[in-house]
Amino acid sequence: MLDTELDLRNNPGVVEPATEVLKEGGIFLISLPDGSVLDGGNGNLGLYYNDTRYLSHLEFLVAGQRPVFLSSSIRDSHFAQIELTNPVFNLPDGTMVPAQTIHLRQLRLIKGAFFQRLRLINFNPFPVKLMLRFNLAADFRDIFEVRGSQRRRRGELLPVEVRRQGLVLAYRGLDNLIRTTRITFEPVPTSITGHPDRAEVSFELTLPPQKKIYLHLKIELDAGNTTSGNKISDLFSAATIEQAAAYHQWQRESTRVWTDNSFINAMFQTAVTDLKALQIDYPGEGGIIAAGIPWYTAPFGRDSLITSWQTLILNPALARQTLRFLARYQGKGVDRWREERPGKILHELRRGEMTGCGEVPHSPYYGSIDATLWFIILLAATYKWTRDDDLLQELADPLRNCLHWCLRYGDLDGDGYLEYLRESPAGLTNQGWKDSWDAVVDREGRLPVGPIALVEVQAYYYLALTEAAHLLSLLGDKPTAAGLKKRAQRLKARFNQDFWLEEEGYLIFALDGEKRPLTTLVSNGGQALFTGILPPERARRVARRLMAADFYSGWGIRTMSKREKAYNPMSYHNGSVWPHDNAIIAAGLRRYQCLDELSRLAAGLFAASPHFNYRRWPELFCGFTRRGLSGPVRYPVACDPQAWAVGSLFSFLHHLLGLELREQSLFISRPLLLPGTRRVEIRNLAVAGSRLDLAFEEKDGRVMANLLKKEGNLKVIIEA
């Protein structure tokens, strides 16, 4: 992500009040609820592929007017249905066609290309002859341009190529690649008119009463000159069937969650299909889950690793593919422009024109202080959950490379802590998960001088050292494992001395470049809990502090206390509520058995969900205090869906139910139910080579756990 004041996360240009998102693989569409994509300057509407907007305008007019919007929905995260009707218009002979007498239904999906079927039904008692016109344009802007970055020069939009059934829009970039958008219609249009940067496609239709008329549209991106020869209507039907089958297969392979609350069930159903839709497969490279739509539909080390960690309870396949993909791109050399170092895990990988031209360093960019630590944490968690010895052997060298980065490059000043300091002029000033330019400030709201040692990063480091020691011991390298254990214990002792803020019963934010503590009260300290770096009494004090009114909004824990000068509930990182941040904190609350705080935290977030589209937690929302019957305030340019926000639902499930693998057994300890439920069932749970069905039910004020079914040898121990 470019560190610039033009970043739309902080300075949105055009913010649409509501949009719909459709994604599959590397292609995604952002449209208005009525399905239209309108030229919006700095707006984000469009059809995207490989970090480029391949379609910037898509609308159709009925008798010269925009149709009237009725409703829209996205089914199972991959199939859009949009209902429209006509405004009043007159036929050439003067006959008036009343409003709402012609129904138009658009069905859309993406499978290697964008498909649309438009069905029209005339409910008038007479035939209606009308002109249907599609307006189309492609600006081929790089995702960084769409987000507000200014370029000194761009490539060349090529003349529109008009064909019998459609047209081709094309652009020659400064990277010498020609990008094309091929648009084909069925039936053959009445006329096609090409302009320098756009086109109009018209149909003269006669709609008999009560009869269905169909138009099909296919948009192919960088398709070359090959054509299938099949009718678009047949391709649309086949793609619909194949997509449904692929999603059903994903659901069958994953854990199934059922509760006695239909709204909670809908949340899980959407989350499961969202995680399928967010996956991207790169031929020859493997697959990975994208961070979020629209801005982060690309591999992000930290985001993909945390999402995979959150969703081990759903499907460990996500973790396996994420680890393999990121190991492939693990740093090999020293590159200051990309902030690459041997063993370092990437932050962000982009494939657009600006990356290809070297205008941005994302090929990939490595400016993340914690992605390498999360690689170790995820590998350890995945091994513990799956007992996959082959995976551990396969990733033994990447594990050692991660440790090499920690010990050789991560500690910039030799004090035993991991720090970051931006090297690349196009890189990030802040390189923890709060990576906006103003996310790290002191209590006066001033930006500190680096290198910066963040509180949660040191806690991650402690956990990574501890887990790596265990993994290396399993791999037979006991001397190195013993050294890592000692290093972890020294780090723990120093951390509790240098990062503890006694007067607040909490942790400081960071140490600056002069080793002065930044005592700003932020949520980062809460993320230290799940690592186990704090003594129990201190951990309980941190838990209580996070649930005080200046941190806890009633909907969730804010990223910054209301008491701070830099607090702004509408900011990206300085007072907003992030579901994934809360989910990581929740994991720590479970670790230290702070169950009252865990219950209260979960209750707030689950109460917020009905106020968002599809009951889906967005990337973040504003940190205003919960009052009365009003809902949480949305953040204007939050990604939705965002992978680690979606994954947070499964993380809460995991830690509320109290599931823990240890000593090659699954322990269930002091389970809590999801808010608003009295019974929860999880079926087809894949863990340590076994498959389990479990049920949790409240009886006489207690939550009882039962093993319904088991395939495999895993021991299940239910603790009182």
UniProtKB/TrEMBL annotation:
<feature type="domain" description="Mannosylglycerate hydrolase MGH1-like glycoside hydrolase">
    <location>
        <begin position="303"/>
        <end position="606"/>
    </location>
</feature>
<dbReference type="Pfam" id="PF22422">
    <property type="entry name" value="MGH1-like_GH"/>
</dbReference>
<feature type="domain" description="Putative glycogen debranching enzyme N-terminal">
    <location>
        <begin position="22"/>
        <end position="217"/>
    </location>
</feature>
<dbReference type="InterPro" id="IPR012341">
    <property type="entry name" value="6hp_glycosidase-like_sf"/>
</dbReference>
<dbReference type="Pfam" id="PF14742">
    <property type="entry name" value="GDE_N_bis"/>
</dbReference>
<dbReference type="InterPro" id="IPR054491">
    <property type="entry name" value="MGH1-like_GH"/>
</dbReference>
<dbReference type="InterPro" id="IPR032856">
    <property type="entry name" value="GDE_N_bis"/>
</dbReference>
<protein>
    <submittedName>
        <fullName>Amylo-alpha-1,6-glucosidase</fullName>
    </submittedName>
</protein>
<dbReference type="InterPro" id="IPR008928">
    <property type="entry name" value="6-hairpin_glycosidase_sf"/>
</dbReference>
<dbReference type="GO" id="GO:0005975">
    <property type="term" value="P:carbohydrate metabolic process"/>
</dbReference>
